[in-house]
Design a protein that fits this description.
It comes from Nocardioides pinisoli. This is ABC transporter permease. Keywords: Membrane, Transmembrane, Transmembrane helix. The chain contains six helices and no strands. The two termini are 37 Å apart. α2 packs parallel to α6. It has one domain. The chain is elongated and about 85 Å long. The chain is mostly helical.
């Protein structure tokens, strides 16, 4: 005996289910960034404390070998914790992209329930990169200004300054000019490596395989399966 087909779910219930998922994504997103901001604040506090300590230590020790070893040791510790913070911020940024992507999919479902809602959304209503960017920027095209102002770049710049100072202390016996040049070069290399890391992460995030509900001018195979 065949089972009776289930009754269709009323639109109001479907909207409630979608809204529950939406609020869940918002809550996890907020929790993630609260944790990340706390991590960044702790790292900046630690870095500031080390700088203050070294400023006080140099008054008593002078620019001696003892002070140099102390500065190198503390610099390595600050760089280690700063690198871990950079990885956490990078991971959170990637997670955040998919939080936004998920909420865009939900808005696409809202519009499917009631197409007349579409003109009222400032954020994106698809999950292709252009629609996700619209949610991040509320409309304007993302440019280099948005990237440079991000938390990830801020932490990378602070860590790169630490790298420059650390290398300068290590190379100081070779002369001040050598120490300065090596410090600047390796600080720039450090920035470049993290930019490449960010580019790879962005390429993963914007892989067309993730796109199921492209916007009007999104380019993706909406039926592609995720592997």
């Amino acid at each position: 005996m065949s089972q009776p087909s289930p009754e269709p779910v009323p639109p109001a219930v479907r909207a409630q289910i979608l809204a529950t998922e939406h609020w869940g994504l918002l809550a996890v997103r907020s929790q993630t960034w609260n944790e990340v901001m706390g991590r960044i604040s702790a790292q900046l506090t630690f870095t500031s404390a080390v700088l203050v300590f070294l400023a006080l230590a140099v008054q008593g020790l002078g620019y001696t070998e003892t002070f140099r070893i102390l500065a190198i040791t503390l610099g390595l510790v600050v760089l280690l914790t700063g690198t871990l913070t950079s990885f956490r911020v990078a991971n959170a940024s990637q997670e955040d992209y998919f939080f936004v992507l998920g909420m865009n999919r939900l808005r696409a479902a809202y519009v499917a329930l009631d197409p007349t809602l579409a003109p009222y959304f400032v954020t994106g209503i698809g999950d292709d990169p252009r629609q996700v960017t619209q949610t991040y920027t509320m409309g304007p095209v993302r440019d280099v200004n948005h990237v440079l102002a991000s938390a990830a770049i801020f932490v990378v710049v602070v860590n790169s300054i630490v790298v420059g100072g650390l290398v300068a202390f290590i190379a100081w016996p070779g002369g001040p000019w050598l120490a300065a040049i090596l410090g600047v070069v390796l600080a720039l290399v450090h920035v470049g490596l993290w930019v490449l890391h960010g580019k790879r992460t962005y390429d993963v995030n914007t892989d067309p395989r993730w796109v199921r509900f492209p916007g009007a001018d999104g380019e993706a195979d909406g039926d592609a399966e995720l592997s």
